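Reopening this ticket.

The earlier resolution said the output was attached, but the attachment link was broken on my side. Pasting everything inline this time so it's all in one place.
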Amino acid sequence: MTFPLPPAMRLALDMAARAADEGEVPVAAVVVLDGEVVAASVNAMARRRDPTAHAEMEAIRAACSTLGLHRLDGCDLYVTLEPCAMCAGAISHARLRRLYFAAEDPKGGAVVNGPRFFHQPTCLHRPDVYGGIGDVEAATMLRNFFAARR
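Inline output:
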């Protein structure tokens, strides 16, 4: 049985597909507060020539700016790929309430793979984590993106 994706994850997957069309790695992130989208971003590393311009970082910065806050208490983050260590750190520092991600990233992920950032004793805040939401679509999009470049 297939269930419909949460609207924020559907938005993230659609944005990731558009990012791929523009040559960016197809990853997108959406910040939601009380059911409303506060910010939505895609990877911008190539376009901005900035290795820290991951979708999560861009969405967190935009949400903080939009809300006029330095922390995102009560907000949820939807992202199409398991966050890396840098992004997991930002998620923790931003105090996001929940993290929803689509595809796991065995090579670069830091939530359920690699360092498992939120399980470290030095992690200051641990969001609730829900993985695998839209994972087949996200993983297929990423595989196709990199296969076309090899």
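Reporter confirms the inline version is readable. The radius of gyration is 14 Å. Strands lie at 28-33, 36-42, 75-81, 98-103, 128-130.
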